[in-house]
Structures are given as C-alpha cells and as structure tokens.
Specification:
Blueprint lengths: L2 H6 L4 E6 L8 H12 L6 E3 L11 H11 L4 E6 L5 H13 L4 E5 L18 H11 L3 E6 L10 H13 L4 E4 L5 H13 L6 E5 L5 H9 L7 H10 L3 H21 L4 E5 L4 H10 L9
Parallel strand pairs: 1-2, 1-8, 2-3, 3-4, 4-5, 5-6, 6-7, 7-8
The protein binds flavin-adenine dinucleotide.
Flavin-adenine dinucleotide (FAD) binds next to strand 3, strand 4, helix 5 and helix 6.
C-alpha cells in the first residue's frame, strides 16, 4: 500500500522505524525483531539505509521481510551521499523486484573521508527524488527538521530547500526527533505559510537508556526541554526507571500531538519491540490498527 494513500484516510497512524544489521550473519535476529514489531500492527514500518550516510546491504532484505513475509506496509529508506547513480539504480531495481513501493529519499550525512559530490552523484535529496520519479511509480517521502538541518544557514532557508524537495515530488515528510512539541507546531506554521501542504509525520524517539541521551546531545541543535532533562537526571542511575519514564514521556508527547491534530506519528524504536509495544499499549484506545 502506498503511504500517501494511508495518510489520506485521516485516521491516526502510528508507524515504527527499524534499522538493518551491518553483517549478514545478524539477519536471522533482525528477522525476529521484524516479526515481533509486526505483531504490534503498526500502520507501516520503515527500514533505514546505512547510517551516517553509508550504504546498506540489508535494507531491501529487511523491507521485503516486513512487507512480503509479515504483511505490514513498508517504507524503505535510500540515501545517496555514498552512492553513485549506478548503485542507486541497482537498489531501485531491487525494490521494484520485491514490489516495494514506498521510499524515504535522503541525501544522507556526508562521510568525512569521502569527496562529495562526485560527478556521478546527487547533491541533494531533491535530485534523488527526481531520479526516483523517472525510474518508476514509487511513493516518495523525505526528511524534515523542525529545529533546522545542522548544515542550513537558517530555519527559513532550510524550509525554502524543503519546498524544493516537495516540488520535486516528495509526497510526505517525516520529522527529525524533537522533545518539545511546540517546536513542531511552530515549524508546521512556518511550512504551511511557505505553501508546503504535504502530510508531516512526527518522529518521536523514546529515550530509554543513557547511551541514547549521549547521542542526542551530540546532535547539534536538538533542544532538550527542562521537563525532559529533569526526567533524565532523576532516573539516570536506574536503567529500569529511566526506561519506564522514557516510555511515559514519549506517550505523553504523542497524546499531545494527536490532541492537537497531528494524526501521524513515527516511533524511532531503536529495534526495541518491547518499547514500541509499551507505547502502543498506552495508546490502545487512541490508535486502532487497520487489521
Ligand atoms: P537534503 O534534503 O538534501 O538537505 C541537506 C541539507 O542541504 C540541508 O541543510 C538543506 O537545507 C540543504 N539543501 C537541500 N536542498 C538544497 C538545494 N537545492 N540547494 C541548497 N541547499 C539545499 N541517514 C542515513 O544515513 N540513513 C537513513 O536511513 C536515514 N534516515 C533518516 C530519516 C529521517 C526521518 C531523518 C530526519 C533523517 C534520516 N537520516 C538518515 C539522516 C539524514 O540523511 C541526514 O540528516 C542528512 O544530513 C540530510 O539528509 P536529507 O535527505 O534531509 O538532505
């Protein structure tokens, strides 16, 4: 099913992100995680492509497992910072062979040790989107940054570039994580003012361990509100308490979003079906799976 069609229904959707393993030997474990996550019946699942802009050998495999083995609509991520046009064409062919019709098209982070862009590369996600549209009938999404992309001169210029991405054929957007909903509401006001009208899926990261907090604080620009800091400080020494509090914080954020008319939420699950399951249990009267 095309995600653009799903988003048109105006129903509340909760979807989940997974990342593929680096090594083929870890695929059986990853398939187990897909199965457990699929049993939660999210509206769709996304599978990331590499990390920090690197390529990924197992995204298509895992996306196939989500959709064609477990029957959940899938969104396959695809980045172009480390790939030339030939590699992109190869992945698109593989996606088509597996009848995977949704792609989150991204530039990816530019790897520090590589020259970018080479002559056979796309400079921006918008160029990748144009190429995918020429290749075939995919439903294409893109990323957006409520606090501005770290490379952007300003939020305004980032939103101008976002508009280019939408004009290139991006049918929906998924946000970077944020911990203060007001940041998203402000961003949506600005994007609408610029004429960006495609659905925006709010990306929510349940913070359930200390390592995640380190990673988040290293992301330049991510605002950690006082309420969030207090939770982290209070429960830092108790992993079980921090996990419970992180699930409650994410649940609270999602309820506030839905109450304010944001019907589509994507959970950055960090491959933890128990965490996604606990959030979905908290929302069992708010999000009703379609099947
Ligand atoms: P772009 O849309 O190309 O934007 C990158 C920068 O260039 C921005 O500052 C933008 O303002 C600017 N820009 C864009 N277009 C133009 C233009 N025409 N002219 C001038 N400037 C322009 N990374 C991975 O490696 N794998 C993943 O699976 C992955 N999944 C992600 C999912 C989500 C929901 C999000 C939010 C991020 C994800 N990332 C992933 C990280 C992402 O790849 C990085 O944030 C990357 O630095 C930017 O990718 P982008 O697609 O947003 O780039």
């Amino acid at each position: 099913m095309k995600i653009s069609e799903l988003l048109k229904t105006k129903e509340v959707t909760i979807s989940c992100e997974l990342f593929p393993p680096k090594k083929g030997s870890e695929l059986p474990k990853a398939h187990e995680i897909v199965k457990e996550m699929a049993e939660l019946r999210p509206a769709f699942m996304s599978v990331t492509y590499g990390a920090s802009g690197g390529i990924s050998e197992h995204t298509v495999d895992l996306a196939n497992e989500v959709q064609n083995v477990n029957g959940v609509p899938v969104l396959a991520h695809l980045t172009c910072a480390s790939s030339g046009r030939d590699k992109i064409q190869e992945v698109l062919r593989e996606l088509r062979e597996h009848e995977i019709e949704n792609i989150l098209a991204l530039r990816g982070d530019i790897p520090e040790d590589l020259e970018f862009p080479l002559p056979n590369q796309y400079h921006h996600a918008s160029e990748l989107i144009e190429e995918i549209k020429l290749f075939g009938d995919f439903c294409i999404g893109g990323a957006c940054y409520p606090e501005g992309h770290p490379e952007a001169e300003s939020i305004e210029s980032d939103i101008d570039n976002l508009k280019r991405k939408v004009e290139a054929g991006c049918e929906f957007l998924t946000t970077q994580m944020f911990f203060d909903n007001n940041i998203l509401y402000n961003f949506l006001y600005r994007t609408l003012k610029k004429g960006i009208e495609v659905p925006v899926i709010a990306g929510i990261m349940p913070v359930t361990n200390a390592n995640q907090i380190k990673r988040i604080t290293s992301l330049s620009g991510t605002v950690l509100p006082q309420r969030f800091r207090a939770v982290v400080e209070r429960f830092a020494d108790s992993p079980a308490a921090l996990k419970q509090a992180g699930i409650a914080y994410a649940t609270d954020q999602i309820i506030d979003l839905i109450a304010n008319g944001i019907n589509n939420v994507h959970i950055y699950t960090m491959n933890k079906p128990d965490v996604a399951g606990a959030i979905l249990k908290n929302l069992s009267e708010i999000y009703k799976p379609r099947v």
